[in-house]
């Protein structure tokens, strides 16, 4: 299975809404940037059922997030670099590709730990998480210079202004704190149950 990815830096920055200085937001009574959305059992939409979504941006213009528990395929990192027209280095790394959401699936994003950043191509979210332009971070990973933890996703979940707030009020989602263990380390099959258990404890 092959993906045809278009990674355009201006669009990346526009979607994320920030640079390495941090994600820019208009003031909201409550922003869930940097949090996890946990799908309620009542949510039947196959694209989002039992999803856990890391919220990259939530402001007056809407919200954007990446689903972290729906893997699509495993691909050689060298193949991804070739598609992105990035000079390859010798590596046998296999890359797990996740379904990040139904919007703009020709775009790829790397959600990663904040120990890695590259000028004008990394948006720091908070709580130790960042998102980077795929070309920059995958090249660094192939050279063993990338982030300690990362997750590659194609597409994203997007909400219009106040749409996410309405879905939260309806009970489609719960909000919990994000941590690296849940986002990056847990086996995929355990992410939603673990997040759901934490949601129940927080209620």
Mean pLDDT: 83
- Summarize the amount of helix as a percent range: 25-40%
Distance between the termini: 41 Å
Q: Give the low-confidence spans.
A: 6-14, 18-25
Would you identify the CATH H-level superfamily of the domain at 9-15 and 27-86 and 93-109 and 152-198? VC0467-like
Largest sheet: 10 strands, mixed
**What is the string of helix and strand elements?**
HEEEEEEHEEEEHEHEHH
Radius of gyration: 16 Å
- What's the CATH topology label of the domain at 9-15 and 27-86 and 93-109 and 152-198? VC0467-like
Q: Quick one: how many beta strands?
A: 12
Sum this structure up briefly.
The protein contains six helices and twelve strands. The chain has helices spanning 9-16, 77-83, 134-142, 163-170, 180-185, 188-202, and strands at 18-19, 22-23, 35-39, 52-59, 62-67, 71-76, 94-99, 103-113, 122-124, 129-132, 150-159, 173-177.
Description:
By secondary structure, the protein is α+β, with helices and mostly antiparallel strands. Mean pLDDT is 83; it is low at 6-14 and 18-25. It contains 6 helices and 12 strands. It has a domain at 9-15 and 27-86 and 93-109 and 152-198: VC0467-like, CATH 3.40.1740. Strands 3, 4, 5, 6, 7, 8, 9, 10, 11 and 12 form a 10-stranded mixed sheet that branches. A two-stranded antiparallel ribbon has the order 1-2. Strand 9 (122-124) and strand 10 form a beta hairpin.
